[in-house]
Amino acid sequence: MKISARNQIAGKITSITKGATTSHVSIDIGGTIITASITNEAVADLNLKVGEHATAIIKASDVMVGV
Questions:
Q1: Number of domains forming the structure of the chain
Q2: Is 24 contained in some domain?
Q3: Which CATH number fits the domain that encloses residue 20?
Q4: Which domain holds residue 53?
Q5: What is the predicted pLDDT for the residue at 58?
Q6: What is the DSSP string of the chain?
Q7: What is the pTM of this model?
Q8: Phi, psi dihedrals of residue 40, rounded to the nearest 5°
Q9: Whole-angstrom distance, CA of residue 61 vs CA of residue 20
C-alpha cells in the first residue's frame, strides 16, 4: 500500500491498552516509544499484537515547538 504521509517510522508494538472504544498502541522505534490512539475496531481490523512489527505514520498540519 502506498500513502502520501512522509513521516513513517517502523518499530515493534510493545503494548496495546484497550479502553471502552479506543485503544492506545505503543510502538518502540529504537528506544523511543510512540503511542497512537486508535479505535478498538482498527486494532481488530489490523490484527495488531504485541511483539509484531508496525509502522507509525504521522500526518499533521501543524508542528509546534516549545521551550
A1: 1
A2: yes
A3: 2.40.50.100
A4: 7-58
A5: 87
A6: ---S--EEEEEEEEEEEE-SSEEEEEEESSS-EEEEEEEHHHHHHHT--TTSEEEEEE--S------
A7: 0.84
A8: -60, -35
A9: 28
Q: Which three cell numbers stand for residue 10?
A: 517502523
- Contacting residues for 56 by C-beta, under 8 A, at least 6 apart: 8, 9, 10, 11, 27, 29, 34, 36
Q: In order along the chain (67 residues), what is the average pLDDT of each group of 10 residues?
A: 85 98 97 95 97 92 79
What cell numbers appear for 13 in the block? Answer: 508494538
Say if 64 falls within a structural domain. Answer: no
CA distance 11 to 22: 21
